[in-house]
Amino acid sequence: MATSLLALLDDITTVLDDVAVLTKLSAKKTAGVLGDDLALNAQQVTGVQSNREIPVVLAVAKGSLINKSILVPLALAISAFAPWAITPLLMVGGAYLCFEGAEKLAHKFFHSPSEEDQAHHEELTQALTHPEVDLLALERDKVKGAVRTDFVLSAEIIAITLGAVAGASFTTQVAVLVGISLLMTVGVYGLVAGIVKLDDAGLYLSRQASAAAQALGRGILASAPWLMKGLSVVGTAAMFLVGGGIISHGWPWLHHASEAVAHQSGAGLAWLSPLLFDAAVGIATGVVVMSVWTLVQKLRGRGAAAH
Prior knowledge:
Elements: H1 2-44, H2 53-81, H3 86-110, H4 115-129, H5 135-164, H6 170-196, H7 198-206, H8 211-250, H9 252-264, H10 272-306
């Protein structure tokens, strides 16, 4: 009986080791989505009254957990009954990431403020300056929009994680998927809560009697907008790197090309060249998908106008 107990403990230790290693690997792979997740969710809270920022973040975090409670069983079902679908789903998720990154760049450099953008800005201004406007309705709309965005990002995280644990046992898959889901939700929305309260912290410190506290507060207030911009830039770059990496690994000829580039670049740049290769693949994929999507939208518009 003692031998059986020791064998059981050894099996449990082995499973926990596998879970720890795969969770670390999955966290590293999904970290690329983290920057964009942070930037998007922090931006979603803009326009909310200061005393309502944390409740809104908590509401979105709750919605994120519900999203993952739906996505994790779906991922496990795919792994159990249709494992052949994992790679195509990863490729679709990677292509979507690249498309989203390309769309962000196109919106940044080629988009002029539209009437829809101006109307949205006016809506936020009226909600903050006129007490008769239903602020709770505005909050609910923001939460719904943020939860919809989170569903897409959560699906990408779960798909990437599923690809990393596809060869593991079912128990290990469950543990890693649940662990990553909780880790990402707590990590992302904990950081979002901290980011959206940076201005309040800076304002509080700037009003203190200590000159050092005032200087720190002014520094926080000055750096907060740059932090948001930095997160947005990092998030966009991560989309191309992660999406391009998924595409590169999904197509054997691209994977071999990446290895050849790394080999030819020498030992000094062997770590950098695969990243640049993945970024180039990601940008190219994003441009192609966005071009096809734009063409489809134009054709649908012409078809609707003809009728």
